[in-house]
Amino acid sequence: MQAEEYNRRGKELVDYISKYLGSIRERRVIPDVKPGYMKELLPDSAPVEPEDWENIFNDIERVIMPGVVHWQSPHMHAYYPSLTSWPSMLGDMLADAINCVGFTWASSPACTELETTVMDWLCKALGLPSFFLHHHPDSRGGGILQSTVSESTLVALLAARKDKILQLRAELDQEVDDSILNSRLVAYASDQAHSSVEKAGLISLVKIRFLPSDENLSLRGDTLKQAIQEDRRRGLVPFLLCSTLGTTGVCAFDKLSELGPVCEEEGLWLHVDAAYAGSAYFCPELRWSLQGIEFSDSFVFNPSKWMMVHFDCTYIEYQRELTNHHLNPCFFPTKVMILIFHIRNKFVTSISAICGVFRELCRRSCADYVRAEVELCIMGGAVQHRAVQHSTWLPGGDSGIAQICVNGSGNNSMHFFFFNGEITL
């Protein structure tokens, strides 16, 4: 394919995408296929000779679409939102064309500088502390993009582990292998925390204690304090708490205002997982759960869930620099804050998308979108409660963060209401 054909085919694909998203509500959300369906539709091996683009293009509807779960559909209510937007898709196109590899500032200055600038935009828009900013006198770290919150949790745990091991070694009179010190470490999370916390513990070979939440499914300061005291008596060394703002299961919020002071007093790294609910902080009136964020060492959320930026895209802020390298024009410490050597082009794509969303839709539009979703949530909860005898719960009371938790009982009447379209949000 040459430039002339690319121009023609590109226009065709843009038209297809526009038509697809414009009529997506008419498509079945969940595909009616069985595992292995595609094997019969594609050859056993890659073609030896090039195929005509028309055949490739036609396979989108013939092969791909029959097996797609249409996450952008207004009828998609499973899992969690995964939203995109026109500015996000345009940013994706440009970044793929540039296709740079940003492992240092010198390898692509615009890559690094756009990231630090846009990360500061996000920090300010969410109302996070100024020490998370790249460009601020109070800066003690900065924000970067990761692929997923799971990866971000692992990086935060590894950083906290190394920080605590260095501290323990400095306090000892004799040389002790890091593996011995690592075996004494223990981290904490709520029993409502995402499974990626447990996975991070398995990868890093540290103990994770999942602490019981209260009647609102929130982890409280007294519970953490008691667990720390118990573990110290057992000879363990507490080093990290993964607190969740908007849990995956029920969108509950740990009591950060109680947990933060305990972490500071006991010397624990406080990592805040706001994967889903983080976008709600565009709205000042929804920042009630952020009280205590000034005690955090790292904060992460997914713009790809609720900010209309394509997947995968994860924003994480670190209060501390994770490197001892001196910052200079040829080296930025962001590359040691991720698990891979370079800032891959997908991250550049996400940065371009966030920049496009901010500049085209603006902060006000992002906040208004969140407010509209929250209003729909409150309305939907009221409709459900009237329609079927069951209990509903909006996390955070009447200001639920756009998630309705249903405790069904007795029969499947609620399922019939949803599938028959008698309840439409």
Describe this structure in words.
By secondary structure, the protein is of the alpha/beta class. The chain folds into 3 domains: 3-76, dopa decarboxylase, N-terminal domain, CATH 1.20.1340.10; 94-358, Type I PLP-dependent aspartate aminotransferase-like (Major domain) (Aspartate Aminotransferase, domain 2), CATH 3.40.640.10; 373-419, no CATH class. The chain has helices at residues 3-22, 53-64, 86-98, 109-125, 149-171, 178-182, 195-204, 221-233, 256-266, 303-306, 345-387, 413-419; strands at residues 142-146, 185-190, 207-211, 237-244, 269-273, 298-301, 314-318, 391-393, 405-407. The strands form 2 sheets. It has a 7-stranded mixed beta sheet with strand order 1-7-6-5-4-2-3, with helices on both faces. The radius of gyration is 24 Å and the shape is globular. The two termini are 45 Å apart. Mean pLDDT is 79; it is low at 322-347, 385-394 and 414-425.
- What's the count of strands? 9
Name of the top-level CATH class of the largest domain: Alpha Beta
Major sheet: 7 strands, mixed
Summed up, the helix count is 12
Low-confidence stretches: 322-347, 385-394, 414-425
CATH superfamily descriptor of the largest domain = Type I PLP-dependent aspartate aminotransferase-like (Major domain)
Counting structural domains, the number is: 3
- Element string (H = helix, E = strand): HHHHEHHEHEHEHEEHEHEEH
